[in-house]
Structures are given as C-alpha cells and as structure tokens.
Write a structure and sequence with these properties.
elongated, binds adenosine-5'-diphosphate
C-alpha cells in the first residue's frame, strides 16, 4: 500500500523528533497520557448530555503495557477514539500548524526545544523514543476501527483493523539502545512508575498497569510471581494536595504540561481561602512573553473548577486585563457544576474571587519587586507594557494598583527605576518628573533637550515603548510631581532674568518667525527662540496634548488615516547660538536665502529629534549649494 505523505511542516517536525537531541525525551509519555486523558474527557463531557453514552466515570481508564521481548510500550484509553478522517487529520498534521514559521535547514538545538515546548508537539514526541508507531482507534459509536502506522518522516498508512471497544491504543516500538541513550529503560516498570508520578500523577482517570510481584507462598519459603493490577497515579489534583507534599518542580512540571510552556514560570502563586468565598487558586506568571501575547489571538482567562471538575477552560472574568498574562486555575465549591456562561458573568462569588485574586497578584508582584529585583525586571521586560497599558486603558482607574509596579530607564545609571525611586532621588524643589521619548535609550540621550536637562542635574526617564507616554499622560503626576516631556515648549529651566531676556528676543523677532513659518508651508505651528538646547542650534518640540512621539504612534494605528492626528510642532532655535544673528541679518538682506535656510534648519530639527524628512533630495541639493 502506498504511503501517504505528511504535510510539509509536520514532516520537518517529525524529522526533528526522529533525530532529536532533546534531553528530556521522557516527556513523550506525559504527552501520550495527556492525549488519552483528553480523549476520555471528551467522551465524559458528552455523556453528561448524551444518554446514548453508557460509560460511567468509573469505567474510564488509561492502561500501560510494556513488552520487553517485543520491545513495545502500549498506551491505551477508552475515550472518544478517532474516525478514519480524524486519524489522518490529527496525526498527519501538527494541530497548531501555521502558528510557527519553519525556517528550513537551520533547525538548531535551541530552536528545537522552543518548538517542543511552545507548540506542544504532543503525539510526535513519541518519535524521539520509537522507530515505529501504530495507532489503533475506534470512535465511540462507530462500527469500524482503523490502524495508522508510521516509521517516521517517510509517510504513514491507514487501514481498517479489528478493535473490540471504543478508544485509542498507541503502540510504540522502542528504539534500540545507543551509547548515549538507553531507550530500553522505558520498558522497565520502575521507570514508567517514576515518570507517571513525576508528570501525570494528577490525571483524573486511573493509569493502570499489570505489575509482576514476587509473593511468598503460604506455609513455604518459596516465592511465586503474581500479576496485580496497580493504579500508578494518585488522581489528586496538584492544588488539592497539601503544599508540603508538592515540590517546586512539581508545580513547574504541571505548569509546563497544562499551559503549554517550555520554560518554568517565574512565579507560582497559591491561594486558599475560606470565608466570603471558598476557593483554591493556583496561578503562574510565565517567565517570557508567549508568542501570541500581544496579538488579537491571545485570550486571557483562568481555568475554572467546581470541586475538582473543570467547568470552564478560560474564564476571563477571573482576571483583569492588566494581568492577562497570568495563567492558572481556580477551584471553588461555591459554584454550581451546571452554571451557564451567561449566569457566571453575573455570579457574585466569581466577582469576589476575581477581586481577591487581583489583590493577591498585585501584592505578589510588589513583593517580587522588593525582594528579587532581577527577577522582577525579567518579568517586567516580558509584561511591563501590559501594566502600562492597564493604566492607560482604564483612564487611571487602576492607577493606585499599577503605578508602583512600572519601571522606566533612568538617565541616572541607565538602569530601570520605579517612580518612587525617582522621586526619592530628587530634591524637594524639583517639581517635575522629566521624561523624553524615542526609539532607543541611545537616541533619546542624544536629544538636545535631554542634554540641557541633564546639564541642570535633573534625572530624565527614557521612554522607549509606544505605550509609555500615554500611560504617563494618564497618571499626570506622581507624589505631587507632574510629568513633563522635555521636548515640549513647557520645558522651563531658566531663571527669571534669562526668561525675560528670552521673551524680549522672541518679541523682537516676531516678523522673522512669521516669515520662517510661512516658508515651511504649514509644517510647524510656531517658530521661537529657546534656551533649552544646550549647544545645539535647532530642535523640534510640541505644544498641546499630542507630542511628536505620540503623533507617530497614533498614526501607526489602524484607522488613523481619517483622523489626521498632528502634533502642534514648534521649531525651536537656540537663542544663544550664532545662527540667531545670521537669520536676523538675512531677514533684512536676502529673503530668498532665508527661505532656503529655513528649510534646512527645519530638516535638521527633524533629524535631531529622531524623525525622518519628507524631502531629502531637496534638502540635499540645498546643502550642496551652500558648499559651492
Ligand atoms: P494536541 O494534543 O496538542 O492537540 P497531539 O499531536 O498530541 O496534539 O494530538 C493531535 C490530535 O490527535 C489531538 O488534538 C486529538 O484530537 C488527537 N488525539 C491524539 N491522541 C488521541 C487519543 N488517544 N484519542 C483520541 N484522539 C487523540
């Protein structure tokens, strides 16, 4: 029979598994048992509403058989099973294909490990330990059964077969031992027992195996071999065990298995309360950003259990948006098993639980910030933007919760700082918290206004993320000190005498400024002298609520074209720079030249502020003319 080919992506993944150098090959057993358990779940859920399903909870089991002579390890379940089409579709393609862009020919070890964890390669992981796999399956209620067979990337076959009962049987032919890898150990009872304890102990259905024991015969010193059916898992969910029984590694393994991550969580939060709401929560904060986190596909939510039985996979009411990165579950005896989604949204208990969880997460994050700064910064790099987004999108309602959890790079030492730390470092007289916005810390530190503020010995926060300035605008102030973008015309560093001088200079040059502004054809709202540029000639600032940085971000957003969002930009000319005299002289003597100079100055101001220019060829020609 001709072999069918795997879909391209699956074939690559399979190749990777067959030749895997991944050190935790043992996870294949967890993956297969987890599939078996899911398949039983499916049938069990169906039985709740479909009276034609006659199995009861006690009938379900997962069975392991090891045959050392044949070198096979068999995992079978009596769950929903698969039809012929399902066998082909589910095992011929990776379930989550498309979410990963395979780069051909350069799969290296770290990439492989990423894929194994991130995409839950699941069933295929069995090819790390087996050189041939047979899957016999019979869908519940179906007349016929099918066998899928494959020895790896060269394809697979599907044929009819005999199978008495519903469910799936996976038969692995275990690879020969090599120098480095003793695959045969996966056929040993002690090893299987160990792996089930480690990874699958909480599975809610019994994982059974016939195990040989040596029994002493009665009234004799002789021993006989007896086979006894043993259940290898405790079936107690991890959150129901007493904390002293559960190790950090147990939590980590549970998290990785159930929430499809390949790295340990950065923090595990366990909460058990009795009183207004009885519940146990087991929460995890991932240590890195999930690949789809900042996309529309990402859905927040916690698993919801009612006395140990899952009633919802993703209950989004339990977690606020600013903590949407938190994974985990809540088990409560106050919720009814049959509660509908609609009713749940209004459930009083759920609201109480959600409030308490938010408080708990906030306090755990604050604790991490105080006691383990390095870890917190890792967390913040992954999810900090979400906290800032939370400040912005709630119009400040979550301000008190979040403002002490956000960090910005400080001009002080280039490290991340909290607002509290900034304020503690500043003198009482300093009424502002200065910040500047740009693509990177390096670029921001080169802004003329930043240099000027630093020259006054003020600390500046460097904002590099799109959301940053929006969040600060919502906060408006921290501890009585207002936030100020140094690139706005409100920057005011001078003493009274200097201010007066500047005012006079600006007044005298009013006509000159009008001329320059008109020469620029409406590109700027205003032209003025400034004393905040240190040694630089020109720069751009803004007046009004929208800064130049915000203009750029807002215009990147969908639907921005219709809105024509524009910052009111101001061309700032250094009042102490010799260019001032030059411009005044040209205004009297050569206005054509002044027009050209205006364009060059404006282009320079844009470049200095980290912006692009619309007419580079024209500017280049003008500069060349100057050189000739
Ligand atoms: P995942 O479990 O992450 O979806 P797998 O590659 O492990 O990915 O499995 C692919 C699909 O094959 C599953 O989603 C399920 O539909 C089906 N499947 C795997 N094992 C079984 C089983 N024992 N019984 C029924 N269906 C199964």
């Amino acid at each position: 029979m001709a072999k069918k080919q795997f879909k391209t992506e699956s074939k690559k993944l399979l190749d990777m598994m067959v030749n895997s150098i991944y050190t935790h090959k043992e996870i294949f057993l967890r993956e297969l048992i987890s599939n078996a358990s899911d398949a039983i779940d499916k049938l069990y859920f169906r039985s709740l509403t479909d009276s034609s399903v006659t199995l009861t909870h006690a009938d379900y089991e997962i069975r392991i058989t090891a045959d050392k002579d044949a070198r096979t390890l068999t995992i079978s379940d009596n769950g929903c099973g698969m039809t012929k089409d399902e066998l082909e579709n589910n095992l011929g393609t990776i379930a989550k294909s498309g979410s990963f862009d395979f780069k051909t020919g350069e799969e290296n070890q770290s990439e492989e490990i990423d894929i194994i964890g991130q995409f839950g390669v699941g069933f295929y992981s069995a090819f790390m330990v087996a050189d041939n796999i047979k899957v016999l399956s019979r869908a519940y209620g179906a007349e016929e059964a099918y066998i899928w067979e494959s020895s790896g990337a060269d394809g697979y076959t599907v044929k009819t077969c005999d199978k008495e009962t519903n469910g799936t049987t996976v038969i692995l032919h275990i690879k020969d031992d090599t120098e480095d890898e003793k695959y045969g150990a996966y056929l040993e009872t002690y090893r299987i027992r160990e792996l089930i304890k480690k990874y699958s102990d909480y599975i809610r259905y019994p994982i059974r195996m016939l195990i040989e024991h040596q029994h002493k015969k009665e009234d004799s010193d002789e021993y006989e071999t007896v086979k006894e059916d043993e259940t290898l898992n405790s079936m107690i969910p991890i959150w129901k065990k007493s904390p002293s029984e559960v190790s950090d590694e147990d939590y980590n393994n549970y998290y990785k298995d159930k929430f499809g991550d390949y790295e340990n969580p950065i923090r595990v939060i366990r909460q058990k309360t009795e009183g207004t709401a009885d519940y146990t929560a087991l929460l995890f904060i991932p240590s890195h950003t999930p690949y789809d986190y900042y996309s529309r596909e990402y859905e927040k939510g916690l698993q919801l259990y009612s006395s140990g039985v899952m009633i919802m996979e993703k209950c989004k009411e339990l977690i606020p948006d600013h903590y949407s990165f938190v994974k985990g579950l809540v088990d409560s005896s106050d919720l009814s098993l049959n509660i509908s989604r609609e009713m749940l949204q209004h459930d009083r208990h759920l609201k109480i639980i959600a409030k308490a969880l938010e408080k708990k997460i906030t306090s755990e994050l604050s604790k991490m910030l105080k006691t383990d700064r390095e870890k917190y910064e890792t967390f913040f790099k992954a999810f900090g933007a979400q906290l800032k987004w939370g400040i912005y999108s709630s119009f400040g309602a979550n301000k008190d919760t979040l403002q002490d959890l956000i960090l910005f790079t400080s001009s002080n030492d280039g490290k991340l700082t909290t607002l509290r730390e900034y304020v503690e470092r500043t003198a009482e007289e300093q009424k502002k918290i200065y910040y500047a916005v740009g693509e990177s810390v390096e670029k921001i530190s080169l802004l003329p206004q930043v240099e000027a503020v630093l020259a006054h010995n003020y600390e500046v926060l460097y904002l590099t993320e799109d959301i940053d300035e929006f969040a600060l605008q919502i906060l408006r102030e921290y501890d009585g000190k207002e936030f100020l973008n140094v690139c706005t015309e409100n920057l005011d560093l001078a003493d009274d005498e200097d201010k007066e001088k500047l005012r006079e200079a600006n007044e005298e040059a009013a006509d000159l400024f009008t001329f320059i502004r008109d020469s620029l054809g409406g590109a700027v709202a205003k032209v003025q002298f400034t004393n905040t540029l240190h040694n630089h000639a020109v720069s751009l600032s803004s007046e009004g609520a929208v800064s130049v940085g915000m203009e750029q971000i807002l215009n990147k957003m969908p639907g921005a074209e219709e809105q024509h969002i524009k910052a009111e930009t101001v061309l700032e000319i250094n009042v102490d720079h010799p260019i001032r005299e030059k411009l005044i002289a040209l205004f009297e003597s050569d206005r054509d030249k002044l027009r050209d100079y205006s364009k060059i100055l404006y282009a320079q101001a844009r470049l200095v502020s980290g912006l692009t220019i619309d007419n580079p060829a024209e500017i280049s020609d003008l500069v060349c003319d100057l050189m000739l």
